């Protein structure tokens, strides 16, 4: 079974940084598209960043220039480096793996940014 394990969430002050990690098992990571999503209270889940098997990346406008997504295929891990955090970044962040068979989701990790 595909399993995604996330870590790195926590509480930070505005302007601070966090790095989220997501390690996958049960599938061929190197040919999977990996994405980070977040869901704030009262809002829909939204795409934050994504990296394809070819290494290309996309970002939501709200995090562009502040967040960086990267992957280490040797470790089956995708990262989300979050800098210059703002209170509006507060949300549960989810790791998503997409391959030819479908989408798979991690359990989510809470990120809270205080003002």
Description of the structure:
This protein is an all-beta fold and 115 residues long. Helix content is 0%, strand content 56%. The protein has no helices and 11 strands. It has strands spanning 3-7, 10-13, 18-25, 33-39, 46-51, 57-59, 67-72, 77-82, 91-99, 102-105, 109-114. The mean pLDDT is 96.
Mean pLDDT: 96
- H-E string: EEEEEEEEEEE
What's the number of extended β-strand segments?
11
Instruction: Give the count of helical stretches.
Output: 0
> Regions with pLDDT < 50 over 5+ consecutive residues?
none
Which class best fits the helix and strand makeup? mainly beta
Measured distance between first and last alpha carbons = 40 Å
Q: Please tell me what the overall shape is.
A: globular
Oligomer: single chain
**Rg over C-alpha atoms, rounded to the nearest angstrom:** 13 Å
The amount of beta strand, in percent, is over 45%
Task: Report helical residue fraction.
Answer: under 10%
Provide a concise account of the structure shown.
With 115 residues, this protein is mainly β. The chain is 0% helix and 56% strand.
